[in-house]
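From the pipeline queue, job 12 of 40. The input is one protein chain; the requested action is below.

Action: predict structure.
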Amino acid sequence: MTEISVVIPTKDRLPYLRKTVPMFLAQQEVNEVVVVVDGCSDGTLEYIKAASESDPRIRYTDNVTNKGLPYSRNRGLELAQCEYSFTGEDDLELSENFFATLLAHLEETGADLISGRNVFRGERESRAEAIARTDRIPDPSVNGRTLMVHVDMKTAGDQEQSLLPAPMLGRTDVFRKVRFDDSYRGNAWREESDFQLSAREAGYKLVYCPHAISFNIEIENDRGGVHATWGLKRLGWQIRNNWRFVQKHREIIAREFNVGNPYVYIAKFATQRYSGLVFGMLVDWKQQVFGAPRSAAKLFLGLFLM
């Protein structure tokens, strides 16, 4: 049987990690879970130490200080002992037969890296509701004008793509050869897109598989992990990291996407992100002042700003 190392970077999200580690270990194909403790202060290190003592399949390393998501992914992949590795996350949930499905489709398509459908669901939303909602997302799966991927889109079948959802499965040696670029700082915006285009530039085949589904939980007021940076500071990192991404991969972006003038693209990106930040602040303000549910506030402000 093919064995998989699951690599999980984590920072201050202990309640979710407690659920995620045993979930991964319950998967038949998973031989080990490698947790990278990235400067945690919530008891994560103590938990993972105790867990590793009781189960040798749990391994860990401690960055001591926060060194960021790309560094932590690379560190975990360096420690991985299996032929295949999966870039896991500390709040991920998996559908039935997730890894068996991904491995079968990786072999069938000849992919070097493969990602399943990655559905983001609200804390109060069921899996079925989240799937039904994202089933309605229209084509294309990769937006060539915005350089964004619809990570939870239901496509007709497997398809080769330049960009994928962040949870990826591939041979460990491929991850080690390409590596995540740890110069993406702050909230590490674009670190997975950077890795994927670097893999494409190196000649590797990337495939999106809608038959295996994972779920990320959209946590309200989340301040753990990359969400520790928020507001204008988060926006600043998004703009800087996005600019680095576009400059670094300008040749493949010009060839495989249709962003047009990169300077105009960056200006539009910054404007849209700033508008989104202001909109979110207005939603929160209306919720606090009028006590309206967040969904109702969004609808009100959406109509007001049209």
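Job complete. The chain is about 45% helix and 20% strand.
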